[in-house]
Amino acid sequence: MLIPSLAFELSFRLVLGHFLGDFLFQTDGMAKGKDCSGRKDRQALTWPWWMLGHAFVHGGLVYWASQNALFGAVEVVSHSLVDYGKCRGFYGLWVDQLLHLACKAAMVGIVLWA
Q: Domain locations in the chain?
């Protein structure tokens, strides 16, 4: 069982990685490029490639934070799905961020109870 200080450390690294990926490492080009709302800008890459690139940045950060490749892969999928939902207008930024953080909390929970 993971002791509380290690759970806090993992949580901190996962949340830090999330905010780095969403706000520091996400370029304007990436933020605009992953827009799946149907807007038709001329770009070399279509929105799924930008979305996947953004999700892989997050997957890499989760792998860095957890040293668990499965968590990194799950992050790529979950981050893509959550961002797609926001992009399609199913919810706004606050719900988007809460869903991302809930995924991180689930990862910590899995480690705690494994």
A: 4-35+45-113
